[in-house]
Specification:
Blueprint lengths: L1 E5 L2 E3 L7 E5 L16 H13 L4 E4 L12 H8 L2 E3 L2 E2 L8 H7 L3 H10 L12 E4 L7 H17 L3 E4 L6 H11 L7 E4 L7 H9 L3 E5 L12 H13 L3 E4 L17 H15 L1 H8 L1 H6 L1 E3 L2
Helix pairs in contact: 1-2, 4-5, 7-8, 8-9, 9-10
Amino acid sequence: MSTVRTVLGDVPPERLGVCDAHDHLFFGSPLLPGQELSSASAARAELAAFRAQGGGGVVQWTPYGLGRRAADLPALSRETGVHVVAATGLHQAAHYDGALLDGLRGRLADVFVAELTSGIGTSGVRAGLIKVAGGFHALDAHARWTMIAAAEAHHATGTPIAVHLELGTGALDVLDLLCGEAGVPPHRVILGHLNRFPDGTLHRQAAASGCYLAFDGPSRAHHATDWRMPDTVRALADAGHGDRLLLGGDTTTAAARSVDGGPGMPYLLRRVRPRLAAALGEELVDRVLTENPGRAFGVEWR
């Protein structure tokens, strides 16, 4: 049986509602100084704005050590009526102090499993997702270490693994490692940021494995990929992969929040949804926003 593990407890996949499959309520990294997502009131306002657009669920991909504020998530979920899924996992090495990483050597998989089964820190909030990250067109030693640990945690708990692909690259290398070497079933892997690397052939190759493909976040100016996304998503749907597509907002800085003048979480439903519906039809877009996330983030408890 599969259930989605939210910060308020397990819910059936069909109850997740219209879902932002990749976003952040709290996030902080030394690579983004002064742009931390650290305000609970701003997070509440963002969730409320998403709810006002018809949103029902948000999957926060913020992993270990990057300001998840897990203890604040249950109240925010209750107050706004939006289901929230929290993550364990580890981002790229550049986001962390070396001493923190050294302290995790030899026990990383155990940390992931503990946060999935017992809770994040003293919050009591159990993660429902393992988030890891690749590099630019390659997997370095840190990526391999974290992905192998994520695979071990998956095998122990049945939890899905979400992968930050740097600028959308390295998808096949990730699948070779997670699904080939480490034995994770492809339908338990979610590849993120594919909108940033609009290579249709690569997308179809990845989708053919059975993994989920996330198109998450409006383009930065130098990415210039938003206008390609409807055609990319339609091509995948036409090739029979409509049941493997996910959409998200990926708000990572304070300036990007809608309450601070950015697109934020509501943009996914306010602008992206109608744009895709015009290209793909309402029925498919509805399934991508509701049925697909329910399956992708369902935990097959062991």
